[in-house]
Write a structure and sequence with these properties.
four-stranded parallel β-sheet; Diacylglycerol_kinase_cat_dom; metal-binding; eleven-stranded antiparallel β-sheet; about 300 residues; alpha+beta; Tumour Suppressor Smad4
């Protein structure tokens, strides 16, 4: 059996990955890496492919795609009620945001990412369990490896995911954020952290962070650590459109935390409830909406980094 199994999303990077994968494959062969691979064909296919590969005995499973693809592959490690420790997750980033690799320290260029894979050094990191409602109003759950949020971030992700991403991650998300701020209306919600109510009112965004970055390079959660056993929770209160626009630049360097309407917490469990449908994103994708419950799963998965 070959060592590595690559789960490739050919639609990632605005559809260019299918072509670039041929180049990556030749590079892998040149480095003496033996591998098998499969292309994904639609939503959640990467999860199915990953589970089947692990059950066949592959030890090194590599996601080739964006943060959404990484999320699907990571969820494929959840087998028979628990995350397996029999395999490790690798990443060659081919997406729009490429936010998780910023926290992990994995190079964006595939040559550097392959070098990381060759080293086979792993790190155990936490995951966030997300319980939410799908688009039919049914309860579902999946796991988050980077950042999930309700409110403005979910609204931005919907816009970005339904438009061309040819401008690249930074500009696609910046454009999507600016347009979304102009149209978005703050939601009403109640926030309970580890059993204690910390907020009840209108808000712009509430995020549960494992990694530091989202939205194509915004440093939303500078205090977040992937293996500290906590959900770094960021609450942007009832900020107006002008206020959001004037403070947007601060999110890119993490200095927004000093704003009086921004609060941050460390939590094991976060519940955000509302009588409204809260736009939800998990690792850049929109699987449904909130009310939502977040729970930390400590050292759930091994990542090559």
């Amino acid at each position: 059996m070959r060592e590595f199994y690559f789960v490739v999303n050919p639609a990632s990077a605005n559809g260019t990955t299918k072509t670039v994968w041929m180049e990556i494959g030749e590079y892998l062969k040149g480095k003496g890496i033996e591998y098998d691979f499969a292309f994904t064909t639609g939503p959640n296919h990467a999860t199915q492919i990953t589970t089947e590969a692990i059950k066949k005995g592959y030890k090194w499973i590599v996601a080739v795609g964006g943060d959404g693809t990484v999320n699907e592959v990571m969820n494929g490690f959840y087998i028979e009620g628990q995350f397996t420790q029999k395999a490790a997750l690798g990443i060659i980033s081919r997406g729009t945001g490429c936010d998780l690799i910023r926290t992990l320290g994995i190079p964006k260029e595939y040559q550097g990412a392959v070098e990381i894979l060759q080293g086979k050094k792993t790190r155990e990191i936490d995951l966030i369990k997300v319980e939410y409602l799908n688009f039919w109003g049914e309860k579902e759950q999946r796991y988050c490896i980077n950042i999930s949020d309700v409110g403005l971030g979910g609204y931005v992700a919907q816009r970005v995911n339904h438009t061309s991403k040819s401008a690249g991650g930074l500009w696609s998300y910046l454009r999507g954020t600016l347009l979304s701020i102009l149209k978005y209306k703050n939601r009403q919600g109640k926030v309970i952290i580890d059993g204690q109510e910390v907020y009840d009112g209108r808000f712009s965004l509430i995020a549960a962070a494992n990694g530091k970055y989202f939205g194509g390079g915004m440093k939303l959660a500078p205090m977040a650590e992937l293996d500290d056993g906590y959900i770094s929770t960021i609450l942007l209160g009832n900020m107006g459109k002008v206020e959001l626009l004037l403070n947007l630049a601060k999110v890119y360097d993490g200095s927004h935390l000093t704003h009086p309407k921004v609060k941050d917490y460390k939590a094991k469990e976060v519940v955000i409830s509302s009588n409204e449908r809260l736009p939800l994103e998990i690792d850049g994708e929109n699987p449904g909406f909130g009310t939502v419950k977040y729970s930390i799963i400590e050292k759930a998965i091994k990542v090559i980094c």
